[in-house]
Structure formats: structure tokens, C-alpha cells
Amino acid sequence: MKSSLALAALLVTTPAAAQQADLLIWGGPIYTGIGPDAVEAVAVIGGKIALVGGKAAAQAIRGPRTEVIDLKGAALFPGFTDAHAHLRGVGDRELTLNLEGSKSAAEATNRVKTYLDQRKPAGPVFGRGWIETGWPEGRFLTRDDLDPIAPDQPVILGRADGHALTANSAALRAAGITEATPSPEGGAILKDAKGRLTGVLVDNAMALVRSLRTAPTPADRRAAFEAAFKVEAAYGWTGVHSMSVDWADVALLEALDVEGKATLRVYYAVEGAQAGPLFTGGPRASPSGRITTRAIKLYEDGALGSRGAALFAPYSDAPETTGLVRTPPETMRASMTQARAAGIQVATHAIGDRGNANVLDLYAGQDASKLRWRIEHSQIVRPADIPRFAALGVIASMQPSHAIGDLHFAPARLGEARLAGAYAWKDMLKAGVRVVGGSDAPVERGDPLIEFYAAVARKDLTGFSAPDWNPGQKLSRAEALKLFTAEAAYARFAEKDLGTIEVGKIADLSAFSVDLMTAPEADIPKGRAVLTVVDGKVVYWAD
Ligand SMILES: [Zn+2]
């Protein structure tokens, strides 16, 4: 009843109803993000939502030039935004050696061998995407795996989480790394029981091989973005908050937008060390507003898988370490002070409980609430620190898929007691914290349906979850939807224009073959995107 009253109100107050629609969408449940009821139709005029309601009302503004899309039962939502991804990395994944899905060290090695045999690349070879979770070898990929297939050519392969890599002996030699090389601050050069290098470099130690990589050319960057736009639209994302961005990529994406080639709405958080021009110039956007840059990305600690996350107490499965603080607090404070003065949002990576507490301490006394500062991942948090997020107005930017990947090793790393505040998105919401959802692609696949499923099911894709994996942290469907729509809009200062399907808002829309509000849990990740609309323009349609 309520929704039909609201509809009547919209029709009398909307002058657009007299005009002809550019785009009409109907034929499936349309969830506006406001209230639980679905509506029948949405109309778009001039890139904005002009009507939300019944099919008859929509029919009335259909004209000869109106494009009509029949959802054929698919479900339409406000545009899904990935609030934490690495956009150029998503494109690079399409264009370079990709080891994702390797089920063993042997398989990963074989895939590298095939790549070398087929492509015969010159110079150092870079790839990424291996992760040892579930491998029968029960260990990281090492140089001993790679040396037989690449004795002389440097090969460097990033772990999927981006917080560790494996270099073969040729790469270690080329970078001048020996057993005598000390681990840098905030990083680790891993050795085996005999003190031999394994080739695995963790966090800040990864920089030791960076010199082997030639910087991507502008053409490489452009190709990667164009690949990323395609992938993201086909997944159903209308927007992304892209993290740890090179300053050079800001102008490039703005230029792509002017050329009409940026089919995704992008919100940029620039790598802290390159943020000088942003501090000087302040928040900026392309003329269309499609590409907005008003945040910086800082790193407090590392990741849990590679034991770089900063914990208060030692790792349960490695009592000699409590993880790594990657950036000294003075450096963090200096960046935050500059950001505050320039009206810039700060997004800080923090995974461990000590890492998160440190960042909350640093944010206190800044304008964290007004400038909507965020903690990226907010992954393992002391339960006592959860209310501090709310009190300081700090946004928790969380990635549901991390919880369903990490459930296989996090209990071993943390022990049962620390799981209480781990991936605790429901407790965050209960405490009044704003939670925004993302995928961290290319660390994870970056499929909104996997993220949504992880948020509501808290089980891996086979349906498995450990009994101690706190099922009480599952979200309702409506809560999960907000993470990727309304809250994603708030976290980029765009709640007036984005995040719900309402008359007057920008027409960013996502449709999926599964009804996320009603489908059985296990069916959600089996669905696919069918329609992606940005600024009222269809950028993907799997008709
Ligand atoms: Zn990330």
C-alpha cells in the first residue's frame, strides 16, 4: 500500500512524466533500495531517473525514440559499486600471466611453463594470482618450484593478496638479494629452516625486486583500463572506488572520460606517497563528474595470509611474530594532517587488531567524521574497538569475500578468541558503524554476486563454513544490498545522486539473473549480471 501511495505522489510532482522516456526498464522485480517492496518499471530521461512505479505509468511516457528493455524476470537494483578494488589491476589481470585458480604449486608452475613456452617473452616476467590456501603442498610457491623451468630468466609472481611474491633465483640475483640481505622495515625476506632464501618476499620486501619492472607505458595503462571497464560492466558494477592509484592514472582516466571511453563511475583514492598534487589542488573531477578524485590511500599493516597484519598478541600459528606495521605513525600523521587541511578523505588499510586500533588512534582528533575517513578491510578488530568506529564516524570498508576465503586459515592464524571481532560486519552495523562493501579485486575475483553471497551466507562457494566462523555475523539481504549501493554512495560523498532508485537521482542500475532478495542462498553466486546502466546509458546487456 505504502509503495502505491508513494508512486502517486511521484507522478503528480514529476514534470518529467509529461516528457518522453529515453529508456524504460521493466519485466522483472525492481528493488529501489528504499523499503522491501519491488516496483514494476523505471524510466530514464537525460541520464536521470524520471519515474519509478507501475508499468502503466511508464507506458504513458513511452515514445517512438524510447529504448525499452525487458528484464525477462531478472532483478534490477540501484547500481552496484565495488567500494574497494584496484581498477588498473583488474585490467592487468586480463592482459598478463594470471595464476588464479591454480590448485597446487605444481599447477601454478606448469602454467608459468606454458606461458613461457608459448609466448617466449623477453626480459623479466611478471605474473600474479597464486594463493596456497588449499594446496596439497601446504606451503607458499618458492624459487625451487620455478628455477627448473626458468633458470636464467627472472620470474616474479605475486600472491593473490598483493602482500607477498615469489621470485626465482634469477630474479633474486638480478635484484642483488642474497642470504645476507636484511629484511627491510615493514617487510620480510623469507628463508627456510636451513637459512636458504625461499624466494618469497613479504610486504615492504617486495620493493627489492621492483627495479626489475619497467614502468607501464601510457599505452599499457590505457589498454589495462579499457580491459577493466569491459570486465567490470560485464560483472554488473556501475561504479568502483579504486584504491592505491598512481597519480599518472588520474589524468589518464579523466582523459578517457572526455573521450567517452570511461564506461564506469570511478572514485579514486591516490597512493599516499603520490598525493602531493591532490593536497595542493584539492578534490577534483572530470567535467562529466564520472571520474572523481578526492581520497588518499595509506597502509598501516600487511595481510593476514602472509602474517603481515599487525596483531596485539603473537600469531597463534607463528608465536615469534605479531605482524608488521608498514608505515611509521609520524608519517601517517603527517599525511593525515595534510589531507585534513585539503579536505581530502583518508582511506587506510588495516587488517590486524593492532593495526585497526592504531589507525583509530591516529584518526581521533582529526576531522574523520566530517571528511568520512575510512578504514579499508577493518578485518580483525578488538570487540572493544568496534564502538570507536561509530564514535569517531569512521567508515568500515569491508570485503565479504575475504571472510569466505580466509575462513580456511584465519582460525589457525588467530585462535578462537580473536575470531569474535574478525570480519564482524553485523556487529559493526549493530554498533551504528557505516559499513561499505567491496571485493578488493584483483585480490579476489571481483564478482558482485560472490560478494553479496559471502555477506549473507558467510560460507565458501562450496557451502562450507567452520563451526567457529561466527554465523551471527551474516547480514540480511537488505543490509547486504546497502553495502554495495547506498553506503557506497555515502562513502564517496554522492548519496544525493547515487545509491537508490529514486526520481531525480542519476540512472546507475544493475540487473542480475538471480533475485538477490528472494533466491536461495546457494543460487546467488550461480547467477550472472544481465544489465548494467551508467548515467542512463546501457554499458552491458546480456540479451
Ligand atoms: Zn586492496
Structural class: alpha/beta
Please give the CATH architecture of the largest domain. Answer: Alpha-Beta Barrel
Query: In percent terms, what proportion of residues is strand?
Result: 15-25%
Number of domains: 2
Largest sheet: 9 strands, mixed
CATH class of the largest domain: Alpha Beta
Gyration radius from CA atoms, angstroms: 24 Å
Number of helices: 18
Q: How widely separated are the two ends?
A: 33 Å
Helix content: 25-40%
Q: CATH homologous superfamily of the largest domain - what is it?
A: Metal-dependent hydrolases
Bound molecules: zinc ion
Instruction: Fill in the CATH topology of the largest domain.
Output: TIM Barrel
Give structural attributes.
23% strand; TIM Barrel; 23 strands; 30% helix; Diaminopimelate Epimerase, Chain A, domain 1; 543 residues; binds zinc ion; 2 domains; alpha/beta
